Structure formats: structure tokens, C-alpha cells
């Protein structure tokens, strides 16, 4: 069992000269309490020490908290000399009260000067005052108290210091108790199900009133549960975080644990049912300072239910809340609050409500400005005030129900994450990049897909260009396009009312006249993609039950409409054939068109203010008589439009009709328009997979176009009749013709008009095999170009190129520092020019490869005609890449650019001819010299004489009679030549003339190697084992691994050069990467 322990706890009471006192513990003078009793501090210390030390088994720390012996009080006087400047202050002395503790005879003395927070350990008692004075003097010097009179005065604020002693009771747990405590801590549910909020959280601004209300609610003697109510994004969570940050200043002895309903149910469902674990969790919260903060309180009523159990977690907590055993802080919106009251009447009576309203005006600007300053603190970037104003304007206009200031702050946070130096609009005075209004608009446009001129008031909108764009896509509907352009102009100039959809349009007219197509083009224009259009076939919502699916039938199911808008807030909603929907749908539509919002089955508010709503209708089509009786045999377009508008006004309720921004009537299509539609549909046909990816050429005669336009025209059914005609007259015959041919053949397909019928013929192209091979060539060249481009990427990312860039940067710094003097160092200036030229050449090579790769790729896709000269250009670029690698190798390793080769032998004529030809074959520069042995006065001298580079071996003659030839030497220069010939060293035998074989020794190094031992003696080549043997038609090299026949010297040169090139390229590649 636990052992009761009582230990003394000491506090200093520091009395101020002006009145009042400051309490500070002996163990830590950095902690101070004003006007607090010593007993309260001792109790708080005992609780913390028991929990954090003893309950964790750290009993040895109890010894350090238990001072031995009594403390004695004394006073010491310390003299300070006059200020160094003879003016700041005169010489003075200060008296300090201090306490010291003498444990045992001969032990160290612990001395404390509480007024300045100084503690000293002194070895000898007789040196106490001397060393204490020195410690005080050093403390003044370290804290620079003697720099001014104000600092000196701060050391004598306290009138006196009194040491007070309190007895605190502790329990030292036994080993069994420690095991039990450890297990309890491991089994605690609260740390697993929730997160303890620390003080390192973002601040909440301009919410002092609401923060005070929340703090007072938690201090209440009766109902200490609170719920923060406000729209989404107004800072409900941030308010609770601010409470956690400032709990000490608000005098709240609480720990706030943040949890969500999903996190709770995840942890509570372990081992047993959630009810048992929730009961244990409530026991952990009961009678403690723990406060559970639940984000979205409504979710507690959604989790925990299952078949046969209607009790949720929220309902289960009711007894604990009513008894005041636990404290909960919740948050929800106004709609969710009503949902909670409806589900569990009286539940909210256990909570004190703190209402959080959206800030506006200057308060909103201050909140976002302060948050922006916090976001960029310590970063080389700034957020300009006009950027903050623009983010507020855009969000208030297009997302008024998303909550302020949450949405603009999240927008700026995302922009800050994406902001890179190359996106900087301007530089701040301190050199930091700045996010300004233009950057905000650009990011908003990128997120929403809206055209920049529609968002930025500074950019004009060209109505004629807009109309031309729509007319090029939708034929024969000029008036409809004109009306839509007018609506867009109203949106552009911000003259339309906010708090509603961007625009609401009703398209009316006969079927097949382009209503849906115009809606797609409007989605592409406003939001950047036709995929931003969400279409609802209203014939599927002809019953009240089906209409409920739009907002969700139950809380567990998302609505089709609301979820679509939530996932894609900036988009176009198309309600096709709206007259077929149930009447209850129009009630939903009223709220959407009027307020721009809708609440789903989960009580979540959905914002429609960033959408365009288009409704299509064929009302009046059934009673439209296009061929009336009378003098006028056909209705004109204006009469048709007036008919549909009149029918729409009769069909829809006035309150719905009046909320529609614009009714757009569509006229029937005329024959000329149908002709344009035929051309567009056939162009779309050519892009279909069955034609685009098949090896074929499709030729359609002009007569077929005319035939399809005439036969496909129907004034009542419009373009839909044309679709049926195209399918019957062209698509089906084309499909039959293609199915009759081999899929791999190159086909020539022709559609012509014969006897009033479209006839499709297909035959294999005799050049199909050549075209197939050409296709394979294009694909292979595309892959090869991509491989070369990736090699350049690897080169630029390799160690060698990074080293080159580093050297360039260092030289640029030197050039900037030295100015014109930099160029006076000719060697360094040449080096700088060489390196920068190489950097530029690599960049040019990469761009050229990218262009060639793009050409081949576009040719494979049929976008660009193939040009065979591209192959030659690609080969040239491949060779240029190889040469660039060699130049980079030679630049960074200049010691490899010369090689000294020696050919030792009695008559190495054949080796000379081969290597001289090899030097010329590779384009290397070289000089020759002969090596002679000369005996003078019984002294052997080695003489080297220069030779012409084109000399024949027969003309190599000694300077003096008696000189004997030892061999030849070559000084070779070129890019990386030393690495190239590094594998040539060794013994060789040349037998081009079988009757006169030649043995020789080759060395290749950066310096001429020492002469081989025994050179000049007849027995040097007696026991000769060559690594290379060359006969008149056979070449064998054991080191290079070659054993091949050859025909002539040129073939032999190519054979050896290819192997040396391969080894040289591998060595360069290893160095560069």
C-alpha cells in the first residue's frame, strides 16, 4: 500500500516597497504569484508533484525536493564602483537579505538571494560572504544591471524577503500501486479518443466579448456546459482554441480535449460495446478539470445507433450533463441547433449558448489582416492590404454563405502555400516577395475556372467577341446568344443582386434547337470546362419521393443536388425539361433562386451563389402549329418565340417565373443552319475512337453533305432528326464497310452519293505496309527522343553539372564583387565564358530535343504530317549530346586532355602506322619523337629526337652512328584523350607481315613512364606473352574481349575505335552522374 509522506515546502514572500507581495517557490524562482497564499501554492505543488513524479515511480526525485537542515537568514552589503563614464551613477552599496542552508559539517553551503533570484553553492563556510559578494557582482554584470540607473533600481524593488514553510502531504506508491497506476494510464480512453489542446494554436482575433462569455459559462456554479452557435467559417473552433491558449490569463484551471463524433465512436467501439466504454470515459472526465470539446455537436446524434438501438452517443450523455458530472463544449450552426432540438427536446437546456455572428466592415478587415500577419511571420513574403480586400470581395460575392472570415483566410492560406518566387508580382521594401491583388484574382480564376475578365473589374469584357464565340458553337440562335451576353454583362459589371445564383435562365423552345448545347458552351465559357455542367433529367423526379432525393431522403444519405454543388461549387446546373418534375421541386427552386442556398437532410447549408442555373422547357411544343391555315403558310421565328414565352408564363407560378433572371426563347432551325450543323457533326465523327485510332483516310464528297442537310431537316424536331438521319444514312453504312476489312490494313474510305443514296466504299491501300512501318518508325523515334531528353535531364541533375553551376555562381559573385577587375584575369575570364557557354549549350540541346520529341508525338497522333528529315536531325542531336558530355568531362577534368603514349620495340613500324591512323581517325592532335640509346664513354644516354607527324618508319634515322632505336613516343591532345587510351597499355604483337612479326610494349599515361626493364636487350621479347595479337586478317585482344576478322585497315580502326568509344562513354557517364 502507499506510504504517507510529509515534506516541507518553502516559499519566499517578497514585499514590494509600494505595498503588496509576490510569492515565489524556493525550488523555482522563475514562478511568481501575486497576492496568493502560501498554502494554495503548496497545495498546487503537491498535486503536480504527486501526479507527474511520484505516480510515475520516480521516487528518487523526492530526495531533491527534500532540503536538509534549516535555513538561516543573514544580510550582506555589496559595494559597486562609480560608473565608467563618471556620469551615469556614483559609487554606491546595496544591502541584500539572503538565506543559507548548512547541511553537515564540511558540506557545501546553499545560499539564496531571493530579491534577485540568485542561488549559489559555496564549498567552505568561511568563504560564504566573500564568494556571495562575487556572485552578486557577476550577476549584475551578466544581466547588465550597471548600464543604467533603471536597471539598478529593478534590483531593489522588494522591501524585504521572508521565507515561509508549509507542510505538504504526499503518497509514495508501492510497486503494486505503481503497476496499477501504469495500467490505468495505458487504459485511459480520453487520450485515445481526444486531443489535448496546447497553447501552440492559432490565435482568435476580435472575439473578446464571446471569449469572456465562454469563460464565464465554464466558471458557472450551475450549468458549466457551453455551445458555440454560428454560421460555418465564423471561428467557432478558433474561439475554443483561444480559450485553451489563454486559460491561465482567464483563471481557468481546465484542460480542454478536442474530439469528433467519428473519433469517439472509433475508440469506443473497441473490445466491448460503445456504451460501456463511454461510461468509462465519463468516469475519467467526472470530478476532474478535463473539458471535452466536441466539434459539430449534431454528429453525436448520428453515431452509435444501430438496428435495435435508437440511442445515440448524444442521448447517452444526457444524464451526465444534467447531473453536472462532466463538462462539454460543443459547436454547431443555427440549422444544426434546430435539428438537435427537434431530435432531443430539452437537450440544449443543459448548455449555455454563445452566439457567434459574422464580423463585418473594419472588424472583418482587422481579423483577416492580423491572421495574414501571423501566417507570414518569419517568412520572406508579405500579403498586401489590397490582396486581403480582394479576397473578401470575391468571397462575399460568390460565396456569401460559406462564412466569414473562415473562407477568405483559408483562401489566403492556400495561396501562401502555392506562392513561389516565380509567381511574385512585386518586391516589398525589405526584399520579401508580396502577394497582391493580381495574385489573388489569378488564384481565384485558377480554382473556379472563371475567365479573368469576368472576375477582375479592371479588365473590360468585349460583348461582340463573347457573342461570336457562342455563335460559332451554336448555330441559328443569335437572339438567344444576345440575351445570354446581356446577362453576362450584368454579372461582369456587378449590377446583379448578390445572395443568389450568378444567373438563372430558362431556355424555352422546340426540341433539338441547341438548348443543351448552349448550356454546355456557357459552362465552358464561365468555368473553363463542359464537365463543370451537372445535368438533371427532371423526368426522373416526377414524384414527391423522387424530389426528396435531391436534398437527401435521410440524414445518412446525401442529396443528389446538394452533394453535386458541395463537390463542385463553381459550376452550371442544368434542369432539363423542368415541366416534367413534380410540383414540390418548384418549392425547392424558389429558395434556390431567391436566396441562393438550400439546407439538405443533414442540416448542412449548401451555397448556390457560385452556380449558374439553367432550366430547359418544351412547354407549348405540343400545341404549336408550324403550318397554320391562312395566307401565311409558315410561322416566322418571332411568332414561335412569342408562343413559347406565353406558354411558359401560363405554366409556371408567378412567384417562380418572376425569380428567373432571363427567359431565353429559341427559334426553330432553318435549312441553312442545318447545313452548318452537318459539317460540325461530321467533324465530331472524325474524332471518334473508331476513326481517329484506325489507320484510314475518310473522304466524304460535298454531295453527301448536301444530301444529309436536306434529308435531315425537320422544322419541328430540329437537330434531333438530323442525328437520326446521320445514323441511318452515314454511320451504319460506314460501320458495315469497316467491319468487312482487316483492322490492321491501311484503308481508303470514300462516302459518295449515288442514285440519291449514300454509298460507302472501303479498300486497302497498297502502300499500307509502308505506312505501317512509318508508324512504327515514328513511335520508335518518339521514344528515342524522349530517352535522349531524359538523358539531358539526368546530366543537368548529375554531380558534374551541379559542380559546373556552383563554379559559375562563385564566379558571378566574384564578378559582382570585383567589377571590371574581374575581366583583367584572362585565365579566369576565359574559364567563366567557357562554363557559361556550356550551360547555355546544354539548355539549347534540351529545348531542341523537346521540340523534336513533340513533333514526333504530334505526328503519331495525326496532328502533324511526318517529315523523314526529322530522323536525321534526331541523329545529329544524339551525336551533339555525346559531344556535350565529352566537353563537360574535359572541362571539369582538364588533366585528362593530354596523353603521353610510348611504343617500345626494335622496329614498331606496324604499330606506328596503326596508332597514327587511329589518332587521325579520332581527330586528335599529336606530335612524334624517336627514343634512341647512345653509348658515350661507357655511359648509356637516352636521346629523344622530334619527328614529323607523317614520317614513314623507313625514314626514321639516327643522328649519330651507333645509336639504337628503343621506340617511339607520341604526345596526344584532345578532349578526354587520356581516359580514351588508358586501356591501350600492354604488350602487343603485330604480324601484318607474317615473315616479320613485331613485338612491342605500349604505355599510355599523363607522363612518360619509366623505360621497361631490360629495354634494348635481345632477350626482352624472348618470353613474350602479348595481350593483343594482330595478323593480316585477324584481331585478338584479351583485355578488350575482341576476337574478330577484318579486311583492311579502315575496318580494323573502326573495330578498335568502337570498343574504345564504348568504354570511354561508360567512364564519362559514371563521372557525370
TrEMBL record:
Domain Clp ATPase C-terminal: 669-760
Protein name in the entry: ATP-dependent Clp protease ATP-binding subunit
GO cellular component, one term: cytoplasm
GO molecular function terms listed in the Swiss-Prot or TrEMBL record: ATP binding; ATP hydrolysis activity; peptidase activity
SUPFAM superfamilies noted in UniProt: P-loop containing nucleoside triphosphate hydrolases
InterPro entries, alphabetized: AAA+_ATPase, ATPase_AAA_core, Clp_ATPase_C, ClpA/B, ClpA_ClpB, P-loop_NTPase
GO biological process: cellular response to heat; proteolysis
Key word Transcription present: no
Coiled coil region boundaries: none
Pfam families (alphabetical): AAA_2, ClpB_D2-small
Keywords, comma-separated and alphabetical: ATP-binding, Chaperone, Hydrolase, Nucleotide-binding, Protease
Domain of life the protein comes from: Bacteria
Taxonomy of the source species: Bacteria, Pseudomonadati, Bacteroidota, Saprospiria, Saprospirales
Gene3D superfamilies per the UniProt record, alphabetical: 1.10.8.60, P-loop containing nucleotide triphosphate hydrolases
Domain (AAA+ ATPase): residue spans on this chain: 222-358, 501-670
Amino acid at each position: 500500500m502507499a506510504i504517507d509522506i510529509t515534506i516541507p515546502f518553502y516559499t519566499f514572500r517578497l514585499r514590494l516597497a509600494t505595498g503588496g507581495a509576490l510569492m515565489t517557490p524556493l525550488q523555482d524562482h522563475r514562478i511568481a504569484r501575486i497576492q496568493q497564499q502560501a498554502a494554495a501554492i503548496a497545495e498546487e505543488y503537491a498535486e503536480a508533484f504527486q501526479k507527474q513524479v511520484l505516480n510515475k515511480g520516480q521516487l528518487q526525485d523526492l530526495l531533491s525536493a527534500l532540503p536538509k537542515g534549516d535555513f538561516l537568514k543573514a544580510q550582506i552589503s555589496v559595494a559597486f564602483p562609480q560608473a565608467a563614464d563618471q556620469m551615469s551613477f556614483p559609487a554606491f552599496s546595496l544591502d541584500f537579505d539572503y538565506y543559507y542552508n548548512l547541511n553537515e559539517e564540511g558540506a557545501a553551503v546553499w545560499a539564496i538571494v531571493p530579491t534577485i533570484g540568485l542561488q549559489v553553492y559555496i564549498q567552505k563556510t568561511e568563504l560564504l560572504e566573500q564568494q556571495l559578494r562575487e556572485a552578486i557582482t557577476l550577476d549584475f554584470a551578466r544581466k547588465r544591471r550597471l548600464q543604467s540607473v533603471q536597471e539598478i533600481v529593478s534590483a531593489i524593488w522588494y522591501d524585504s524577503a521572508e521565507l515561509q514553510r508549509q507542510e505538504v502531504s504526499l503518497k509514495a506508491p508501492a510497486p503494486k500501486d505503481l503497476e496499477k497506476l501504469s495500467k490505468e494510464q495505458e487504459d485511459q480512453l480520453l487520450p485515445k479518443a481526444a486531443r489535448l489542446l496546447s497553447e501552440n494554436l492559432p490565435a482568435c482575433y476580435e472575439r473578446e466579448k464571446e471569449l469572456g462569455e465562454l469563460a464565464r459559462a465554464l466558471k458557472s456554479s450551475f450549468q458549466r456546459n457551453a455551445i458555440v452557435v454560428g454560421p460555418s467559417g465564423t471561428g467557432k473552433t478558433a474561439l475554443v482554441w483561444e480559450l485553451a491558449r489563454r486559460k491561465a490569463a482567464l483563471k481557468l484551471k481546465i484542460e480542454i480535449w478536442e474530439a469528433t463524433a467519428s473519433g469517439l465512436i472509433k475508440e469506443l467501439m473497441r473490445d466491448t460495446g460503445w456504451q460501456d466504454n463511454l461510461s468509462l470515459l465519463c468516469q475519467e472526465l467526472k470530478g476532474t478539470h478535463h473539458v471535452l470539446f466536441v466539434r459539430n455537436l449534431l454528429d453525436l446524434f448520428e453515431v452509435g445507433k444501430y438496428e435495435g438501438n435508437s440511442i445515440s452517443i448524444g442521448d447517452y450523455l444526457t444524464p451526465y450533463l444534467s447531473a453536472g458530472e462532466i463538462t462539454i463544449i460543443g459547436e454547431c450552426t443555427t440549422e444544426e441547433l434546430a435539428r438537435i432540438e427537434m431530435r432531443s427536446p430539452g437537450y440544449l437546456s443543459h448548455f449555455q449558448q454563445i452566439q457567434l455572428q459574422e464580423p463585418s466592415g473594419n472588424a472583418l478587415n482587422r481579423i483577416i489582416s492580423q491572421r495574414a500577419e501571423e501566417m507570414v511571420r518569419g517568412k520572406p513574403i508579405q500579403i498586401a492590404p489590397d490582396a486581403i480586400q480582394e479576397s473578401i470581395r470575391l468571397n462575399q460575392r460568390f460565396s456569401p454563405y460559406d462564412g466569414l472570415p473562415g473562407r477568405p483566410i483559408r483562401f489566403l492560406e492556400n495561396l501562401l502555400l502555392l506562392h513561389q518566387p516565380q509567381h511574385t508580382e512585386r518586391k516589398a521594401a525589405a526584399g520579401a516577395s508580396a502577394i497582391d491583388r493580381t495574385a489573388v484574382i489569378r488564384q481565384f480564376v485558377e480554382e473556379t475556372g472563371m475567365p479573368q475578365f469576368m472576375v477582375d473589374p479592371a479588365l473590360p469584357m468585349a460583348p461582340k467577341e463573347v457573342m461570336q464565340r457562342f455563335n460559332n458553337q451554336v448555330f441559328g440562335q443569335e437572339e438567344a446568344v444576345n440575351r445570354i451576353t446581356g446577362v453576362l454583362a450584368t454579372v461582369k459589371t456587378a449590377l446583379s443582386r448578390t445572395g443568389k445564383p450568378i444567373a438563372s435562365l430558362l431556355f424555352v423552345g422546340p426540341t433539338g434547337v441547341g438548348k443543351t448545347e448552349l448550356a454546355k458552351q456557357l459552362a465552358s465559357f464561365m468555368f473553363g470546362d463542359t464537365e463543370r455542367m451537372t445535368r438533371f433529367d427532371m423526368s426522373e423526379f416526377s414524384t414527391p419521393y423522387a424530389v426528396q432525393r435531391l436534398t437527401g431522403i435521410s440524414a445518412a444519405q446525401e442529396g443528389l443536388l446538394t452533394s453535386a454543388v458541395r463537390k463542385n461549387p463553381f459550376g452550371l446546373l442544368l434542369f432539363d425539361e423542368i415541366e416534367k418534375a413534380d410540383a414540390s421541386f418548384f418549392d425547392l427552386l424558389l429558395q434556390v433562386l431567391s436566396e441562393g442556398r438550400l439546407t439538405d437532410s443533414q442540416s448542412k447549408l449548401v451555397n448556390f451563389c457560385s452556380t449558374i442555373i439553367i432550366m430547359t422547357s418544351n412547354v407549348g411544343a405540343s400545341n404549336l402549329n408550324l403550318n397554320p391555315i391562312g395566307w401565311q403558310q409558315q410561322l416566322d421565328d418571332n411568332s414561335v418565340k412569342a408562343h413559347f414565352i406565353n406558354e411558359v408564363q401560363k405554366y409556371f407560378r408567378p412567384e417562380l417565373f418572376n425569380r428567373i433572371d432571363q427567359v431565353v426563347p429559341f427559334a426553330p432551325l432553318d435549312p441553312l443552319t442545318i447545313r452548318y450543323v452537318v459539317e460540325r457533326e461530321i467533324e465530331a465523327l472524325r474524332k471518334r475512337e473508331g476513326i481517329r485510332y484506325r489507320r484510314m483516310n475518310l473522304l466524304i464528297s460535298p454531295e453527301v453533305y448536301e444530301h444529309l442537310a436536306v434529308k435531315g431537316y425537320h422544322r419541328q424536331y430540329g437537330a434531333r432528326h438530323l442525328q437520326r438521319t446521320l445514323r441511318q444514312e452515314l454511320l451504319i453504312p460506314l460501320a458495315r464497310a469497316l467491319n468487312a476489312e482487316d483492322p490492321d490494313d491501311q484503308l481508303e474510305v470514300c462516302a459518295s452519293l449515288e442514285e440519291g443514296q449514300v454509298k460507302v466504299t472501303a479498300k486497302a491501300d497498297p502502300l499500307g505496309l509502308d505506312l505501317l512501318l512509318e508508324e512504327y518508325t515514328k513511335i520508335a523515334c518518339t521514344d528515342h527522343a524522349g530517352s535522349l531528353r531524359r538523358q539531358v535531364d539526368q546530366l543537368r541533375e548529375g554531380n558534374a553539372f551541379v559542380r559546373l553551376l556552383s563554379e559559375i555562381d562563385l564566379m558571378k559573385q566574384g564578378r559582382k564583387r570585383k567589377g571590371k577587375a574581374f575581366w583583367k584575369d584572362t585565365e579566369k575570364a576565359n574559364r567563366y565564358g567557357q562554363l557559361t557557354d556550356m550551360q547555355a549549350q546544354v539548355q539549347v540541346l534540351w529545348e531542341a530535343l523537346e521540340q523534336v520529341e513533340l513533333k514526333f508525338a504530334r505526328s503519331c497522333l495525326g496532328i502533324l504530317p511526318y517529315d523523314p528529315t526529322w530522323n536525321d536531325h534526331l541523329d545529329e542531336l544524339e551525336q551533339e549530346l555525346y559531344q556535350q558530355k565529352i566537353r563537360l568531362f574535359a572541362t571539369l577534368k582538364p588533366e585528362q586532355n593530354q596523353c603521353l603514349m610510348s611504343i617500345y620495340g626494335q622496329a614498331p613500324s606496324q604499330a606506328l602506322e596503326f596508332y597514327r591512323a587511329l589518332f587521325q581517325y579520332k581527330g586528335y592532335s599529336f606530335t612524334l619523337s624517336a627514343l634512341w640509346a647512345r653509348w658515350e664513354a661507357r655511359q648509356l644516354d637516352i636521346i629523344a629526337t622530334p619527328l614529323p607527324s607523317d614520317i614513314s618508319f623507313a625514314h626514321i634515322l639516327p643522328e649519330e652512328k651507333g645509336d639504337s632505336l628503343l621506340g617511339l613516343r607520341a604526345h596526344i591532345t584532345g578532349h578526354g584523350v587520356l581516359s580514351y587510351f588508358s586501356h591501350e597499355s600492354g604488350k602487343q604483337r603485330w604480324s601484318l607481315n607474317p615473315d616479320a612479326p613485331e613485338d612491342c610494349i605500349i604505355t599510355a599515361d599523363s607522363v612518360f613512364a619509366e623505360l621497361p626493364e631490360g629495354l634494348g636487350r635481345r632477350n626482352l621479347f624472348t618470353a613474350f606473352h602479348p595481350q593483343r595479337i594482330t595478323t593480316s586478317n585477324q584481331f585478338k585482344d584479351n583485355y578488350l574481349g575482341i576476337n574478330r576478322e577484318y579486311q583492311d585497315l579502315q575496318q580494323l580502326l573502326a573495330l578498335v575505335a568502337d570498343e574504345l568509344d564504348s568504354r570511354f562513354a561508360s567512364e564519362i557517364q559514371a563521372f557525370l552522374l
